[in-house]
Amino acid sequence: MNKEELKKRTKQFAVSIIKLASKLPDSYLAQHIKKQIIRSATSVAANYRAACLAQSRASYIAKLSIVIEEADETEFWLELIEENNLLPDIKSIKQEAHELASIFIVTRKSLMLKK
Hints:
Elements: H1 3-22, H2 28-52, H3 57-83, H4 91-113
């Protein structure tokens, strides 16, 4: 998967999370999760775009690290949604969060091995 495809994929992920968040109930917990998950998911896309513009390899790796953290955080919020029965059937979007984190982890590892 090339950079442009990953840009599209991470943006689509953010859009999907925004749509999912709009379906959360009005409870205090759900509203807290809504704000957090929108922030973390949109950060995945925004920070990946920033990584693509990095001026050095070290900067690219650092920005990828942020992308990984945000994808993992989004997965965490999805787990809380699932465990608290706030929305039905979110397995596919949870899988996407996990896959994105995995893609960026592998990318970062391969870059760190190529010195």
